[in-house]
Every structure is written in C-alpha cells, then in structure tokens.
Amino acid sequence: MIEEQRFRLGERPRRLRRTEPLRRMTAETELFPSHLIAPLFVRHGKGVVEEVASMPGVSRYSPDTAGDQAARLAELGIRAVLLFGIPGRKDSVGTEAYSADGVVPRAIREIKESSPSTVVMADVCLCEYTDHGHCGVVVDGEVDNDRTLPLLARAAVRYASAGADVVAPSAMMDGQVRVIREALDGAGLDGTIVMGYSAKYASAFYGPFRSAAESAPSFGDRKGYQMNPANRREAMREIALDVREGADMVMVKPALAYLDVIYAARRRFDVPIVAYNVSGEYSMVKAAAANGWIDERSAVTEVLTSIRRAGADMIVTYHAEQAAGWLVEGR
Questions:
Q1: Options 46, 200, 223, 286, the catalytic residue
Q2: Between the CA of residue 46 and those of 57, 87, 107, 123, 174, what are the distances in Å?
Q3: Where are the domains of the chain?
Q4: Quick check: is 90 catalytic?
Q5: Which of 46, 90, 223, 253 is catalytic?
Q6: Homologous superfamily of domain range 31-223+232-329
Q7: Rounded mean pLDDT for each run of 10 residues along the chain, 331 residues in total
Q8: Does the annotation mark 112 as catalytic?
Q9: CA–CA dist 259, 22 (Å, integer)
Q10: pLDDT reported for residue 310
Q11: What is the pTM for the complete model shown?
Q12: What pLDDT shows up at residue 185?
C-alpha cells in the first residue's frame, strides 16, 4: 500500500538520473580544474624531467622545466602549484631550506616568469633538507619544537621574497603559523598567504612521497608531532589554533582516509579548506589501473568528487594534470 501511494505521488528520483545532461544539471557537487593544486618536486640542474618510480606519471623537475610544467598546467585551467624542494646538500639543520640559492626560490622565480598567473605555493618544512629526515631540529634524539620555529620562519620569508603567493608550513610544530605570520609581516610581506597543514596525520599513505622527495626519516618516525589517525576532535583543535595564529587557509592531510575530518572542519570553520590527496592514495589507484582492476578515469573522478563533496574547497593531487584533461574533455 505504501509503495502504491508513493508511485501515485510521483516519487521517482530516477527521472533526474535518466540522461547525462540531466545528471550534470542536477549534480550537487562540482569539480573543475580550478579546484586542483598540482604538487611539483624540484631539484637542482637544468633540463631535468626525472620520473619518480614509486609514482607513475609524476616527475622531478629542475627550476626551468618546472616553469614549463606550470605553464602547461595553467593551459589546462590548473591555477596553482605546490613546490617541494630536493636540495643539493643536506645537513642537521636543513640549511638549504632557507638559503637564497636554494632550489625552491629558484623554481619560484622560473615559474613566475613562465606562468605569471600561476599561484605558487611553497611547502615549508625541513624534512627534505635534513640529513636525518625529520621535520625539525633534532636534540638528544627528539625533534625540538622551539628551535625549529625560527628556521621555518626564515624559509617562509625566503620563499615569499622570491615571489611565492602562499607559504605552507607542514612540519606540525606548535606555533609554526604564528611565527611565520609574524616574520612575514615584519619583513613587509604581509600580502603573503599562510596555508597551514593544520590536521596532518601520521599516515602510512606517505611512502611514495618520501621516496620522491628523498625525505624518509633515518631513525624513528613522526608520530610524536604528526597527528594520531584515531583522533578527529584533536584536528578541530589544531585547525582552530592555526586560524587564531593567522592561517588564511587550512589543510587536512591525507584526504581520502579522512573525509570525516574534512566534513567536520567544513561545518565548523569558514576559512578555505584544502585537502591533500596524498601519494599513497595516488599510487594505489595507479597500480590498480595498471593491472586492469579499475578504470582509472572513473575512479579518479569519483575520488576527487568525494573529497569536494566532503567539503574541500581545493584539492592537492598528483592526478591534477590528468584529471584536468579529463574534465576539460568532458565539457
């Protein structure tokens, strides 16, 4: 009887799904190339395009080829890149992270020359630059939070001075957003945006990145400063602290395994939320597609849409170039 009444009332949701134009018209979540941020690994040299074995389709670039790549991405509608540097020399305090001759400042200048409209974001951390692979200064076997802060601030000022539009502290040191905001303002760089890696979890999904960036820790792990995957309320506290300290945007990382955290953050905070679809999430899809177990295009579109649906305004993803091509082609 209930079913008969429902049909008499005309409740047939399938009508709205009958054709592709109808499905597009009634879609609740939109995904465009402008929502995507492309990570770029940069290293010293000239003419370098070096494929990353653990991340098929991803390469390391020298500053000049990074500029070329940013221009290609802009043509696809990808408006932003996020830079990670691979130094020529590592030491215990990550000196090249805040050196004027560092690879990231060089890449920033090349990208701004090749693609002036590209929003250049620079990751601010020490892990790629230290010989021990941790995100800060190590004292007696532990990462010293307060000794690390001024070095992160120096790096952020260096990148902003080179032309970065956004600096993105990812070390998960308490107070990192505050000291970077103060340093930028003190250097007359008050227009530079700070994007905090506010809820960055100690995740098993970072493995391919650490290979690509040559940043795996030489001892221990990062659980003492990155977040416990079991915690969501703590993520809200971390985000709130970063916002109070001056973050213009915040990030949840990883994305796919933490959609509930993205959703909770979207309901609570009004600042732009970025989600990082990390290397392990990328490489799993690539591996499954290479074995013919899934259709890569459909899977990637579904994954990125789910991250947007959870509440992310922007998505950092290694699939950015491919996904943008598919999105442009599909419209």
A1: 200
A2: 20, 14, 11, 22, 37
A3: 31-223+232-329
A4: no
A5: 253
A6: Aldolase class I (3.20.20.70)
A7: 62 89 90 97 96 94 97 97 95 91 97 97 95 90 94 98 97 97 98 98 90 73 91 98 98 97 98 97 96 97 98 98 90 55
A8: no
A9: 27
A10: 98
A11: 0.93
A12: 98
